[in-house]
């Protein structure tokens, strides 16, 4: 296990980058805490895998350093960093049995055969492959092979970090939850530093202690699932986390009021001068239809999704989403929408603005 420090780190795939736009990974300074479980979350092309490959040593950064427990490892190999990495698509030895695939990292380090046998049996139970231990990998399905890759990544207890690059992409859906549960169990049992790349918010939020949200090569927020939901630091976080995502509505901010198309609404806190492209952000869960309170709204359709209703509405020509309870009445008199002031966030140029007297 190790504390991993990213110091002034950035990377461009161009030989002579001229501007920030030329960088696939924009400047980043961060400490990955020893023994924590992180998820790198973002859409395709946002820089997640680039960052992971720099941490593992598969890619040298264009600028900056990476340190393990204070030691500069920027030019060190993956082996020297003592990293285990599991890739998006299975990497196995087809001519070996499942047992030999799982045992390979331990045998390669000269571990005692009895320990190897016991540890392989333990990992096989975790990934549900005890019955196929003596089968050749060649004849197995893609998801079975990926489980072998996961198992081989988890088999060593002495690694500094375990890195996972979208490891459940080819896994059968009903197995995904079980494998995420096993990864969490492994983390709690051995305390490895784990970094898990995914574009799936469910995977990220159920796996990680802290989620690192990336957008356009930049880390826009690092926080717990609750922090990402309640206080998105960037409008992209609000959009990407949640189903449906946060409503972002252009507004003018004046002290404790937001003015939306000339209509005022109260805010829970006061704000100083807010410049730039200003907006309010409100989760659909904290919006309510009303017959007499709030902003004028037109209900376009109602989707019953079982535990609640999803209301698709129009606010001054902009589509917004509202989550209503399963038993809530939605009648023709419901022509207004009320936003809970305690859950309204204010944004300027897409970044969250802290209320006066409060930290961001």
TrEMBL record:
EC number per UniProt: 3.6.3.-
Any Pfam family: OB_MalK
Domain ABC transporter: 4-241
Keywords, ordered alphabetically: ATP-binding, Cell membrane, Hydrolase, Membrane, Nucleotide-binding, Transport
Gene3D superfamilies linked to this entry: 2.40.50.100, Nucleic acid-binding proteins, P-loop containing nucleotide triphosphate hydrolases
GO cellular component: ATP-binding cassette (ABC) transporter complex, substrate-binding subunit-containing
GO molecular function: ABC-type ferric iron transporter activity; ATP binding; ATP hydrolysis activity
InterPro entries recorded: AAA+_ATPase (IPR003593), ABC_transporter-like_ATP-bd (IPR003439), ABC_transpr_FbpC (IPR015853), ABC_transpr_MalK/UgpC-like (IPR047641), Mo/tungstate-bd_C_term_dom (IPR008995), NA-bd_OB-fold (IPR012340), OB_MalK-like (IPR040582), P-loop_NTPase (IPR027417)
Domain of life: Bacteria
Assigned protein family: Belongs to the ABC transporter superfamily.
Protein name (database record): Trehalose import ATP-binding protein SugC
Originating gene: sugC
């Amino acid at each position: 296990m190790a504390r991993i420090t990213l110091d002034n780190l950035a990377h461009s795939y161009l030989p002579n980058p001229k501007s920030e736009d030329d960088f696939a990974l924009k400047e980043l300074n961060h400490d990955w805490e020893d023994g924590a479980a992180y998820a790198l979350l973002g859409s395709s092309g946002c820089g997640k895998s680039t960052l992971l490959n720099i941490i593992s040593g598969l890619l040298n950064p264009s600028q900056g350093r990476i340190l393990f427990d204070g030691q500069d490892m920027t030019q060190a190999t993956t082996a020297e960093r003592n990293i285990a990495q599991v890739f998006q698509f299975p990497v196995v030895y087809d001519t070996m049995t499942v047992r030999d695939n799982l045992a390979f990292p331990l045998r390669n380090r000269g571990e005692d055969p009895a320990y190897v046998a016991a540890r392989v049996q333990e990992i096989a139970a975790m990934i549900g492959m005890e019955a196929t231990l003596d089968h050749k990998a060649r004849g197995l399905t893609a998801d079975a092979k990926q489980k072998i890759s996961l198992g081989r990544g988890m088999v060593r207890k002495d690694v500094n970090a375990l890195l996972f690059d979208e490891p459940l992409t080819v896994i059968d859906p009903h197995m995904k939850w079980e494998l995420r549960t096993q990864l969490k169990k492994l983390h709690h049992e051995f305390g490895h530093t784990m970094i898990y790349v995914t574009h799936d918010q469910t995977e990220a939020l159920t796996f990680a202690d802290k989620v690192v949200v990336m957008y356009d090569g930049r880390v826009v927020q690092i926080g717990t699932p609750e922090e990402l939901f309640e206080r998105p630091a960037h409008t992209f976080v609000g959009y990407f986390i949640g189903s449906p995502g946060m409503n972002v509505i252009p507004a003018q901010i004046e002290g404790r009021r937001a003015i939306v198309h000339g209509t005022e609404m109260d805010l829970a806190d006061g704000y100083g001068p807010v410049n730039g492209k200003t907006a309010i952000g409100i989760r659909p869960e904290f919006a309510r239809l009303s017959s007499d309170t709030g902003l004028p709204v037109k209900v376009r359709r109602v989707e019953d999704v079982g535990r609640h209703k999803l209301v698709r509405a129009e606010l001054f020509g902009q589509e917004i989403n509202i989550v209503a309870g399963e038993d809530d009445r939605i009648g023709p008199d419901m022509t207004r929408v009320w936003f809970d002031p305690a859950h309204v966030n204010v944004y300027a140029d897409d970044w969250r603005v802290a209320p006066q007297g409060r930290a961001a």
